[in-house]
Every structure is written in C-alpha cells, then in structure tokens.
Q: What sequence folds into this?
C-alpha cells in the first residue's frame, strides 16, 4: 500500500497561475466574439470613443435580453431602449479601459479564473462534440471516462504520516457512527462538526496530498467529503478504492484544467476572444458600481455639508411617506424626527442616490460624442 500511495496521482482546485493574459482586441465586444466582416458589419459607432459595434453584437445582446422573443416581435420603443442600453454598456466599458481598470488586481484575478473555466469548457466540448447536446447522460459518461484516464496519469504525493492519522480519525468516526446506529440515539456530547470526540485542529490542518502548484488537500477537507456520505454507504478508507473514491472529486476540475493546458486551449484564439468579451462585460459592471454605489457610499461616509443638505432635503420630501410610526390601536401616524429616522433615511438615500448617480454618469459619457446607428430593419 505504501508503494501505491507514493505513486498515487491527483490535483486540487486552486486557480492555475499564468504570467500574462496579453492585451484586449481593438474592437471590444461584450456579448459576441465574431470579428467585424462583410457579413458582420458595424451598425453602431461612436468615433470619439473608437467604439464600433457589429451586427452580431447587437443580435447577441437582444438574444440575451429576449431569449424567447423574435426581434421583429419586439415593440419599436423597447428595441430603441435596448439599443440605448447596449450603447451605455459599451461606453462604460470604454471608460473603464480609459481609466486603467483593466490592470486592477480584481479584474486580472477574475480574468485568470475565467480563462481556466473557458479552457475547460473548450476541452469538454471537444470531447463530447460527437454527441447530441441534449444527451446529458452521454456527455456525463464521456466526462467521467476522461477524468478516470486523467486521474490514472496524474501524479501526486500522499504524505504517509498524514494518511496514517487520517486512518486513525476515520476509524474513530466510523466506530462512533456504528455505535450511534446501534443505539439509535444522539450523544449529548455531539459537537457542531458532527463528531463526539475531540480532534486536534493541527491534525485536521495537516497536508494529506499535494500536486504541482495547486493548493494541497488537508485531512479536514478529505474528512468533510468522507462524512458527507452516510456511514452504511461510504465504506472504509483503509480500502484503497474507498480512499480514492473520496479523493477524486476534489481533483476533477484541476485535472481538466491541466489537460486543457496541455492541449493548448489556454492560448486558443476562440477561448481568448471569449475571455476578452467576458472581461469587457465585467468591466462595465464594475465601472458602473464605482461611479454610483461606491460614490454614494463615499458621500455618506464623508458626510460633508453638501451631503448633509441633500439628506435633510430628502427627509423633508419623504418623511410623510416613509418615516413615521403608526399607533396600532388608533392608526394615528407620528412623523419621526430627522435624528430618529437617520438609519433608514441613509439607507433609502443611498439607494436613490445610486440611481441618480448612474443616470448622471451615463449622460456624462455621451457628452460631446456622435452616436451613429445604422441598423437593418430586421435582424
């Protein structure tokens, strides 16, 4: 068994670390990745911002917003509003790039994680390309077969000392589970973690297995998976098949990540194009939050004279609608004082101020810009 443990192979769920993700394409799409071409012409442009929105981008956005409705059946006023929303999204994404948000650690971290996810999706799509997309059972069977193959080839190191401690803990857990099953009653010494004996936290944090640069698996994470299965169904970790059965799930995604990397999907043009699209989309969302929600929070935090004046004006406007207490017997309403309403007042003000700031920001982005729209009558 020790020889088997020494050669056992696996991985974990940490994100793959990459040195650089390169720069985004000049045409920054948010909902589609098809390049501009004769069949995918530019239908909306904003020269001052260098924004060119191709037809495929518009189609993709409408498909997202109205998945069950044909374009021709969407009322004209709704179409126009939807186009204006798409333009706002592109302007906000452009502004985020202009202000350097692309280099922000949050954006780069999300971009890193998304790259792994997209590469794995590409891998699974390649493996299941011969199947009907609705054949869920067939797709799952192919995935499991691939994972089994990858599991056999991957190499990990299982720490023998930690493994021995795991066996001891698992034996004790199994013993008390059996006693509980026989006695059919709860022990008064049950802990929040679901076991009745004391476990040394240092033992739980011991590394059970490692694989490449991925986050190691600890005894605690293994036992969490082990205890999630009823006693009568889980078997004993002293049996190698059982030990591996509870180790495998933690490694499924990392194994697929490694295989996707090996096949070159981390640098696949289609994957990178989708990564750019997703980044651009996420950036407009973050930018809108920065210019509205975060700004409203900043105003309340600083509470300067202008904000105080706004709050008092807001209170006077809304006090009879929101800030009162009602006598349960007579139904008589008593208006709360400004001080009494402060907590609810600031929460309501923050929400309304956020919406106001969003409207102001979107309008400011359009100032001095020419928006050319040349959409076909039907998509």
A:
């Amino acid at each position: 068994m020790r020889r088997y443990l020494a050669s056992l192979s696996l991985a974990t769920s940490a994100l793959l670390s990459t040195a650089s993700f390169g720069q985004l394409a000049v045409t920054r799409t948010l909902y589609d990745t098809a390049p501009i071409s004769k069949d995918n012409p530019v239908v909306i442009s904003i020269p001052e911002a260098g924004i060119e929105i191709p037809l495929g981008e518009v189609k993709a956005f409408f498909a997202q917003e109205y998945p069950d409705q044909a374009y021709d059946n969407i009322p004209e006023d709704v179409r126009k509003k939807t186009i204006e929303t798409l333009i706002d999204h592109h302007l906000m994404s452009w502004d985020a790039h202009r202000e350097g948000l692309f280099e922000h650690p949050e954006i780069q971290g999300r971009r890193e994680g998304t790259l792994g996810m997209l590469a794995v999706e590409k891998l699974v799509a390649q493996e299941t390309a011969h199947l009907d997309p609705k054949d869920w059972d067939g797709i799952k069977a192919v995935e499991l077969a691939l994972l089994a193959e990858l599991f056999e080839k991957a190499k990990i190191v299982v720490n023998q000392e930690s493994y021995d401690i795991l066996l001891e803990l698992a034996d004790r857990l199994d013993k008390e589970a059996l006693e509980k099953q026989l006695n059919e009653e709860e022990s008064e010494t049950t802990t929040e973690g679901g076991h009745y004996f004391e476990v040394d936290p240092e033992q739980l944090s011991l590394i059970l297995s490692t694989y490449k640069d991925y986050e190691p698996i600890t005894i605690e994470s293994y036992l969490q998976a082990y205890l999630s299965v009823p006693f009568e169904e889980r078997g004993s970790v002293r049996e190698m098949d059982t030990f591996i059965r509870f180790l495998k799930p933690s490694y499924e995604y990392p194994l697929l990540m490694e295989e996707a990397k090996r096949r070159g999907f981390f640098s696949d043009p289609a994957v990178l194009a989708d990564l750019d699209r997703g980044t651009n989309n996420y950036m407009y969302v973050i930018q809108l939050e920065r210019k509205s929600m975060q700004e409203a929070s900043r105003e309340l935090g600083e509470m300067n004279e202008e904000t105080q004046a706004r709050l008092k004006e807001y209170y006077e406007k809304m006090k009879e609608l929101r800030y009162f207490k009602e006598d349960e017997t007579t139904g008589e309403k008593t208006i709360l004082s400004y001080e009494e309403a402060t907590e609810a007042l600031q929460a309501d003000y923050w929400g309304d101020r956020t919406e106001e700031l969003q409207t102001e920001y979107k309008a400011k982005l359009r100032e001095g810009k020419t928006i050319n729209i040349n959409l076909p009558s039907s998509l």
